[in-house]
Amino acid sequence: DVKVTQSSRYLVKRTGEKVFLECVQDMDHENMFWYRQDPGLGLRLIYFSYDVKMKEKGDIPEGYSVSREKKERFSLILESASTNQTSMYLCASSPVRVNYEQYFGPGTRLTVT
Amino acid sequence: GENVEQHPSTLSVQEGDSAVIKCTYSDSASNYFPWYKQELGKGPQLIIDIRSNVGEKKDQRIAVTLNKTAKHFSLHITETQPEDSAVYFCAASMSGSARQLTFGSGTQLTVLP
Hints:
The complex is a heterodimer of chains A (113) and B (113).
Chain A: E1 4-6, E2 10-13, E3 19-25, E4 31-38, E5 42-49, E6 56-57, E7 65-70, E8 73-78, E9 87-94, E10 103-104, E11 108-112
Parallel strand pairs in A: 2-11
Antiparallel strand pairs in A: 1-3, 3-8, 4-5, 4-9, 5-6, 7-8, 9-10, 9-11
Chain B: E1 4-7, E2 10-14, E3 19-25, E4 32-38, E5 45-51, E6 56-59, E7 62-67, E8 72-77, E9 86-93, E10 101-103, E11 107-112
Parallel strand pairs in B: 2-11
Antiparallel strand pairs in B: 1-3, 3-8, 4-5, 4-9, 6-7, 7-8, 9-10, 9-11
């Protein structure tokens, strides 16, 4: 089975802190994604990566950056956390084939105080 | 870009009844429409998908229909069971960027025993 793991289930950070969210997949997938999930807004794409060291902005990249140094690992970085970044963050991966299933991790609930 | 609207936001049905969730999309070039189910504390998981060359697809108690002319698609769950209680998301793939999905806002389905 495909497994996507995220480093933390719950995280509490202070305003202004630098925050790292880590995601690892074990299926050698080329594509990896970071989404933000908020009630009533569904899943919104922050960034995605289709290869090592490659990244593309999604719909809401402001305030975030990403890093993909290894194929299996995709990190989301909040350079200076703000309260409006309190949310559920979901990582996903998929093979390079067009229109294929995305496999999601369990999510990280981030609270910024 | 693509915009996906999903209705209703909440849906309660009696066990054994049917449930229908509807989505509309804006980009007529979208050609892939998956449905994801998110159980409490877990990431979304693909349950069924349909491509634009097909009008209907069925998998046991779940079916999806697509009307390309009207740009809407629906999820039908028959003989609902308590384990069907979850949040359901529809999605559409954006033209020109097949790796990306645009998600609807989600439907909280509750199956009452």
